[in-house]
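>> Question from a student workshop board

For tomorrow's exercise we were told to take the sequence and the ligand below, predict the bound structure, and bring the output to class. My setup keeps failing. Could a helper post the expected result so I can at least see what it should look like? The ligand is DP6.
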Amino acid sequence: MKAVAKAHTNIALIKYWGKRDEQLFLPMNNNLSITLDKFYTTTAVQFHEHLQEDHFILNGEYVDGDETAKITRFLDKIRSRAGKSLFAEVKSENQVPTAAGFASSASGFAALAAAATKAIGLDVDDRTLSQIARQGSGSACRSIYGGYVEWQKGEQSDGSDSYAKPILGEKDWDVSILSVMLVSKKKKVLSREGMKRTVETSPFYSGWLETVETDFLDAKEAISKRDFEALGSILEANALKMHATTLGANPPFMYWQSATIEVMELVQELRLAGIQAYFTIDAGPNVKVVCQPKDEQAVYEALKELSVVQDVLVCHPGPGISYLPSTAL
Ligand code: DP6
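>> Workshop helper replied:
Here is what the output should look like for this input. Compare the format with yours to find the bug.
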């Protein structure tokens, strides 16, 4: 009853921002991401007769408190689906630099969903797995698949039609995603809290909802045509709109720092110089720059010259979930 799974993290091109149901992790809007090759989580789950509670070991160290409670709440959903009550030992290794501002929760819950369902003996397809992963962290549902992935928000109140779907495989269109790590302070408002506060209090949230579906459809069309310029303009505008909603929240907040704005300005200057590069930002100060592989080196070098940039990690579209031998971890 042991299984090991590996899941890669993803970066949203059209953001998931706001929940219509917090318990079931149902999003307000359709959204879209690229799964990345460089960053992933490997997780082993083993259910034991003799355990009195779940144990969680992250990067070789036992974790207690809130983090383990979150894992237990998530495993409870899998236990109840399987009709079993055994506790588990969960071992995770993160290849996601926390300083890069990637949500390790996306790869983390995707890997946990895959390993735990397999270890407990449930036979689930990828769609169901995506629905299970969604209930650990929304963006995790997209990490079940590789390449370009959409998460359809669905209409049903039980979440039965809210899951991720692959749009284009990771080998079908190569783009470069440069993850820019800034010299920055720790993030203060987590994405979960930030999106809740925005939905509840920001007068700009209605503007987000009015336009995000058009962004989503235009992005899908740009992907199907491999139109990089069109996709780039939409993803940058969509990120700016998401961040604009936070300024209207009560109390207001912003994820950008001065270093964030320096990178945004550099990207816009690169475009004036004829290089198609576009930025996106999640719930933190770090920036991801998307460009075509032919421009990757020039963009990398320009970013490295900024004194606020600590490091730049270059990614490409990566694979979906995979299972490893039980001896792997
Ligand atoms: C800004 O998936 O981390 O990165 O569902 O509450 O766990 P929870 O939130 P999470 O939010 C991600 C928000 C985002 C945009 C995105 O990835 O689509």
